[in-house]
Amino acid sequence: MHRYRTHTCGELRATSVGSSARISGWVHRRRDHGGLIFIDLRDNYGLTQCVVEPDSPAFKAVDTLRAEFVATFTGRVVARPGDTVNKDLSTGEIEIRIDEVQIQSEAGELPLPVFGEQDYPEDIRLKYRFLDLRRDRIHKNILLRSNVISSLRRRMIDQGFTEFQTPILTASSPEGARDFLVPSRLHPGKFYALPQAPQQFKQLIMVAGFDRYFQIAPCFRDEDARADRSPGEFYQLDLEMSFVTQEDVFAAVEPVLHGVFEQFANGRKCSPLPFVRIPYAESMLKYGSDKPDLRNPIVIADVSAEFADPSVEFKAFKSVVAQGGVVRAIPAPGAGSQPRSFFDKLNDWARSEMKAPGLGYVVFEDDGGKLVGKGPIAKFIPEPIQQRIAKATGAKPGDAVFFAAGKPDAAAKLAGAARIRIGNELNLKAATNYDFHFCWVVDFPMYEFNEEEKKIDFSHNPFSMPNFEHEAFLKLDPKDDKTILGITALQYDIVCNGIELSSGAIRNHRPEIMIKAFDIAGYPAEVVEQKFGGMLNAFRFGAPPHGGTAPGVDRIVMLIAGEENLREVTMFPMNQRAEDLMMGAPSEPMAKQLREAHIRVVAPEAKS
User: Fold this and answer.
1) How confident is the model at residue 362 (pLDDT cuts 50, 70, 90)?
2) Does a cis peptide bond (omega within 30 degrees of 0) precede residue 292?
3) 510-566: per-residue pLDDT in tens?
4) Which of 37, 196, 255, 431 shows the smallest number of beta carbons within 10 Å?
5) For residue 257, what are the contacts with CB-CB under 8 A and spacing of at least 6?
6) Nearest one of 123, 112, 111 to 574, comparing CA atoms
7) CA 393 to CA 431: how far, in whole Å?
8) Alpha helices in 70-128 (DSSP H)
């Protein structure tokens, strides 16, 4: 018999009854029942109930066991009596009668319990992450993560992609988030940077003549944490393809993501292939966001023309429209039955959290077969205009319509946030068809007007190919603001349940178009050559049309696991302050290390 185990703690079944077995694991739970001691022993694979009787030679040793001791039990596999079978446990039909016990290691007093799913403060969980990872939910999440990555890798290879690794020590990137810098010992005063993404390398792989590249890539960004963004590092399914259009990229990515989500959905439904394509402008209008949660059925409408009508007497909205602003209408199905406090809370939220004047609203009722609006501002809106608003929003009797007014960007932001809040308050997602609702957001604007600097600037990714006839683009007058602000880029985001999984683009692979694109944004050719000379030089030796994307692995697993924070699907995450409480990072270096790296630490000036 093996020294530690003949079976795992999740392996024994009714077919094993009558045989001898040896299992090893952690003491998950101990129960004393009238002289009998029951021990639930746990390992990576599951849990097995074990029992020892008072007359057993092993009783004394078992009696010393406490939570999280590591022990090896040897004994007979017996069937549980019918009324004690645990159908929720894979080993629930059997138990082991302990004949021998060996304690492999003892556990001190636990700073947090492993049994149960009690909520504990983040600092305790992260400081004792090795204990936290033993807890059932987080343990399953980490195993899920591994299985998801294996599935992604297999599906990419099946699609004809080849896995390559790109450098971790590289040059600092002049755009994007802050870099993590690494001092060079051999080159005093110079620094490497950890890659924010393998962007330039994967494009150079295409220039080098390879095709259909991918990797599960580590990325490093010195940015603040959020629930859906880890501080420091994260992983993405990085991919790039040559000689492709935007639709070719979609056709390659969609079955991979859809297949992975379906594989681990456990009965939950995914929106079908192909994923919906939503132009950026439409997404901002209908959903108030470029990452819409399509499980929420609310669709925002533009009712600026209605409030510009001379018959409308509501001056607050009329003046907004007169000054070039807009009014967005957010329908709230069934909200007419809500108490007045529902509407007051939404107004308070808009004022306090969104810093807006408030949310005007109208409640529609059936008045003798006629749809009539009621509420604080309804009296300022003539009945024909009310009918137009109801038609634009699809409002029916018993529905309410809220309004957000302001400059287009501000109104979209408020309307989008109100859409999410109203959807949550009314539990509208419960009635939707899909648990995982995917879409592509396409046709992002290439440029925007920078109000602070009063100039044209890039709106999103400056390295995307303009969705504009190439020769005409090269002839554009940089002062032709109207044409330039109407140019979209071959850039796209894939979104699931309001979470952006990745951004991608068909790349600008022609040096002259890239130089022109930066020139329009006010960057002279010499600046572009200085900052991106390596990439431009490569493109001058024959670059194929290429494009790609990079869905975030952490976010994929977070969605599949049903978690709301990346910490719950990351094995050793840092806290919100980018600290590793378990390992004590970041830490102060030794003087010798600083000398070898030719650097000196300058303490920040004390704040007055």
Assistant:
1) very high
2) no
3) 999 999 999 999 999 999 998 888 889 999 999 999 999 999 999 999 999 999 999
4) 431
5) 438, 494, 496, 501, 551, 556
6) 123
7) 19
8) 122-127
Phi-psi region of 209 (alpha: psi -120 to 50; beta: other; left: phi over 0): left
C-alpha–C-alpha distance, residues 515 and 171, integer Å: 21
* Nearest one of 465, 458, 438, 493 to 245, comparing CA atoms: 465
Residue 173 has pLDDT above 90, yes or no: no
**pLDDT tens digits, 21-47:** 999 999 999 999 888 999 999 999 999
Q: If we measure between CA atoms, which residue out of 83, 110, 99 comes closest to residue 19?
A: 99
> Using CA atoms, how far apart are residues 474 and 495, in angstroms rounded to an integer?
33
For the beta sheet containing 213-221, the strands, ordered from the edge strand earlier in sequence to the opposite edge, are 162-163, 213-221, 232-242, 546-549, 499-506, 491-496, 438-442, 276-279
Cβ atoms 149, 201 nearer than 8 A: no
Cis peptide before 445 (omega within 30 of 0): no
Structure tokens, 163: 């896995």
Distance between CA 249 and CA 269 in Å, rounded?
A: 24
Helix (H, G, I), strand (E, B), or coil: what is residue 120?
A: coil
What letter would DSSP give residue 71?
Answer: E
Q: Which amino acid is at 76?
A: R
Q: Assign 339 to helix, strand or coil.
A: coil
| Per-residue pLDDT tens digits for 217-248 | 999 999 887 777 788 899 999 999 999 999 99
505 Cα distance to chain centroid: 19
Interatomic CA distance for residues 156 and 256, integer angstroms: 7
Amino acid at 499: I
Structure tokens that stand for 216 in this block: 């599960």
Report yes or no: 213 and 164 within 8 Å, Cβ to Cβ.
Answer: yes
Q: Please, are residues 403 and 360 in contact by the beta-carbon 8 Å criterion?
A: yes
Distance CA 206, CA 199 (A): 11
Tallying the residues shown for the chain, one arrives at: 608
Contact yes or no for 160/212 (Cβ under 8 A): yes
Beta carbons of 299 and 365 less than 8 angstroms apart: no
Direct distance between the N- and C-terminal alpha carbons of the chain, in angstroms, rounded to an integer: 71
Q: What is the dihedral of CA 73, 74, 78, 80, to 10 degrees?
A: 0
pTM for the full model?
0.93
| pLDDT tens profile 419-465 | 999 999 999 987 778 999 999 999 999 999 988 888 999 998 899 99
Give CA–CA dist 157/606, Å, rounded. Answer: 54
CA distance 447 to 494: 20
Compute the distance between CA of residue 417 and CA of residue 38 in angstroms, rounded to an integer: 52
Residue 525, Cα to own-chain centre: how many angstroms?
37
Average pLDDT, rounded, for the chain: 94
How far apart CA 600 and CA 542 sit, in angstroms, is 44
Main-chain dihedrals φ then ψ at residue 542, nearest 5 degrees: 95, 90
Q: Assign 429 to helix, strand or coil.
A: helix
Tell me the CB-side half-sphere exposure of residue 603, using CA atoms within 13 A.
4
Question: What are the start-end ranges of the E strands in 515-577?
Answer: 546-549
Q: Tell me: pLDDT of 608 over 70.
A: no
